[in-house]
């Protein structure tokens, strides 16, 4: 039986050495019945226990590739655990060590807001909007399912352009959510002018647009963003270039269009890691993504004679991902050892079905 719990206070007093040995003991008791997934943005003292690290989609696939694991502990945020539940086998249980680990971007698109937006679009287009809804992986299962049920798909930051191309070949327009920046950067890289991509504000009637603007649009961009990546500014790019002549700037496409335009390269977390790892010794990089990933890349690169720094001097932290501490991980493990499944993430079957449809479309496209 699954339970929900707040972390008992006793776990916070555990010292580091004790924590390590108890985590190791619980892992060894659970053996092959357990797999721990750690997102790239996860803190070091948690990610070191992960069997797999990666971005959200890669991790969900890895979970599916371990059918012998009854328990999947997802050290990430809520929408990632939902995707793992959808993609894993029915007997597998997905656990999020802290239920408060959400994603501010995913929370910016709620299913009733999307249903309202769609009914307003149906009014404009006499019942059948010539629109394919596409959602970024960073959205709730309910949003993914809505897209799947209406002929749409999911995309990641690596395959957004391929999914946009697929959608554009089938329909006049795309409704992209929840990240306006990834949508704008993707559309622009395909030659879609900025003024053909109006923003849809879910708190305003018709998203704040006139019917004429919606009819003229190629892409409607949901008004959502990542609170981490939106903190990088074009001025930071100028400052880092003047402070470190010759430095190359690489940013995630969740950054604003202005930042992406000023950068030397853009790409998903996996691509950023690849580009920096493949770079020659002596090169230097300012990276516009989450602090923990940048710090690990910096450490690894320093050993190879490369300089890696955050584009934002102090670094941008994903505070919700940071909620998952070693204490939360330990509590999840010890609960499992005791036979208690706590903080399980379950997607209702009908939502899971349409979510799988949207994810399968993406896999068929890319
Ligand atoms: S980095 Fe941004 S998009 Fe990723 S989990 Fe954190 S808030 Fe969400």
Structural features, described:
It is a single chain. The protein has about 375 residues and is an alpha/beta fold. It has three domains: about 130 residues, NadA-like (Rossmann fold, 3-Layer(aba) Sandwich), CATH 3.40.50; about 120 residues, Rossmann fold, CATH 3.40.50; about 80 residues, 3-Layer(aba) Sandwich (Rossmann fold), CATH 3.40.50. It is about 40% helix and about 15% strand. The chain contains 15 helices and 15 strands. The strands form four sheets. Strands 7-6-8-10-9 form a five-stranded parallel β-sheet, with helices on both faces. It has a four-stranded parallel β-sheet with strand order 3-2-4-5, sandwiched between helices. Helix 11 links the parallel strand 11 and strand 12. The longest helix has 17 residues. The mean pLDDT is about 95. It binds iron/sulfur cluster. Iron/sulfur cluster (SF4) binds next to loops.
Question: Main traits of this protein?
Answer:
alpha/beta; 5-stranded parallel β-sheet; 15 strands; binds iron/sulfur cluster; 366 residues; Rossmann fold; single chain
């Amino acid at each position: 039986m699954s339970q929900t719990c707040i972390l008992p206070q006793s776990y916070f007093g555990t010292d580091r050495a004790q924590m390590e040995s108890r985590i190791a003991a619980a892992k060894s008791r659970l053996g092959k019945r357990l797999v721990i997934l750690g997102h790239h943005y996860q803190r070091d003292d948690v990610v070191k226990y992960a069997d797999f690290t990666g971005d959200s989609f890669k991790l969900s696939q890895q979970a599916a590739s371990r059918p012998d694991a009854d328990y999947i502990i997802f050290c990430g945020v809520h929408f990632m655990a939902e995707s793992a539940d959808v993609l894993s086998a029915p007997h597998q249980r997905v656990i999020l060590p802290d239920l408060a680990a959400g994603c501010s971007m995913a929370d910016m698109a709620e299913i009733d807001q999307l249903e309202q937006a769609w009914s307003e679009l149906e009014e404009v287009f006499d019942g059948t909007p010539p629109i394919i809804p596409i959602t970024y992986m960073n959205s709730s299962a309910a949003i993914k399912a809505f897209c799947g049920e209406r002929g749409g798909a999911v995309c990641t930051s690596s395959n957004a352009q391929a999914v946009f191309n697929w959608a554009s070949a089938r329909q006049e327009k795309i409704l992209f959510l929840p990240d306006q920046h990834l949508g704008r950067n993707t559309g622009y890289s395909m030659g879609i002018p900025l003024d053909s991509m109006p923003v849809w504000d879910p708190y305003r009637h018709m998203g704040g647009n006139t019917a004429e603007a919606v009819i003229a649009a190629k892409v409607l961009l949901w008004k959502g963003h990542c609170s981490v990546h939106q903190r990088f500014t074009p001025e930071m790019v100028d400052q880092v270039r003047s402070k470190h002549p010759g430095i190359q700037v690489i940013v995630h496409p969740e950054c604003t269009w202005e930042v992406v335009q000023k950068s030397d390269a853009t790409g998903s977390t996996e691509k950023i890691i690849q580009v920096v790892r493949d770079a020659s010794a002596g090169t230097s990089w300012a990276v516009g993504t989450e602090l923990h990933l940048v710090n690990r890349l910096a450490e690894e690169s320093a050993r190879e004679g490369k300089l890696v720094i955050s584009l934002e001097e102090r670094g941008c932290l994903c505070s919700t991902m940071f909620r998952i501490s070693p204490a939360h991980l330990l509590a999840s493990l010890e609960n499992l050892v005791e036979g208690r499944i706590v903080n399980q993430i379950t997607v209702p079957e009908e939502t899971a079905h349409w979510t799988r449809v949207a994810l399968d479309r993406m896999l068929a496209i890319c």
